[in-house]
Write a structure and sequence with these properties.
The chain is of the alpha/beta class. The protein contains ten helices and eight strands.
Length: 267
């Protein structure tokens, strides 16, 4: 594909980067990224992916915009309270960059629909807020061989990692084999969350996705980045691959999506 003069001007700061250039920008234009959850993490991630010129962005969310969302979910405005989040998100992303194709899925991800949705995308960003969805997305991306950029936030701390078990790196179950019992961990509605924390982790998810697409820098695959907003501290720790992992280990016990993905709270 050839860029128009207007597109060259729009993406000029990328194009002059030696690690991106015109070839990298064309990779972004051809890429398809699925954002699961148009909330606190999905909002900044989707905004920066659109601004970067990612050709197709998929938004998955079954909820509507609530007034309490607006403290951190910057994809939405006060005028859109009560509107489906995917429609509110589509409006905002199209306003930022009309070059980008926005596909919306006004539904909650489940074991029946996730593989059909994942098929059309190159990279998946998980901004969901329940453990059940995190495990489901992790398992589905493993079976579909899709790189997964996983972020989570809780109160003043955020975590970020890239999961590529199909390339020999650990999966989410290598870190946490099973979800905690329902009710053990409070959710953000009960415990609170610093609004700008979502922006920090969501933007870093977008950065990881762009690196995966263009192919520069060092991936977070095999590592987890932990951010403490109280101490303004970032630290990175290695995630070992679990040879006994029930999903990607030598003797897997999970071979499809027929397991129990009951709703439970997430951090």
């Amino acid at each position: 594909m050839e860029f128009t003069e207007q597109q060259i001007e729009r993406y000029s700061r990328h194009i002059i980067l030696p690690d991106v250039g015109g070839k990298g920008q064309k990779k972004l234009a051809a890429a398809r990224v699925l954002v699961i959850g148009a909330g606190g993490l999905g909002s900044p991630a989707a905004l920066y992916l659109a601004a970067a010129g990612v050709g197709t962005i998929g938004l998955v969310d079954g909820d509507v915009v609530d007034l309490s969302n607006l403290q951190r979910q910057i994809l939405h405005s006060t005028a859109n309270v009560g509107k489906p989040k995917v429609e509110s998100g589509r409006e905002m992303l199209a306003a930022i960059n009309p070059d980008v194709a926005i596909k919306t899925y006004q539904t909650n991800i489940n074991a029946e629909n996730i593989l059909g949705i994942l098929t059309d995308y190159d990279v998946v960003l998980d901004g969901s807020d329940t453990f059940s969805t995190r495990y489901l997305v992790n398992d589905a991306c493993f079976f579909a061989k899709k790189p997964l950029i996983s972020g989570s936030i809780f109160r003043f701390e955020g975590q970020l990692t890239t999961l590529k078990p199909h390339d020999g790196f650990p999966c989410y179950r290598c870190l946490y084999a099973e979800p905690p019992p329902p009710g053990l961990v409070p959710n953000c509605q009960e415990a609170g969350v610093l609004g700008v924390l979502a922006g920090t982790i969501g933007v870093l998810q977008a950065a990881e996705a762009i690196k995966e697409i263009v192919g520069f820098g060092t991936s977070l695959a095999g590592s987890m980045l932990i951010y403490d907003a109280l101490e303004m501290n970032f630290r990175k720790t290695r995630i070992p691959k679990d040879p006994e992992c029930p999903l990607c280990g030598a003797r897997p016990r999970i071979t499809d999506l027929s397991g129990d993905y009951a709703v439970s709270c997430a951090i």
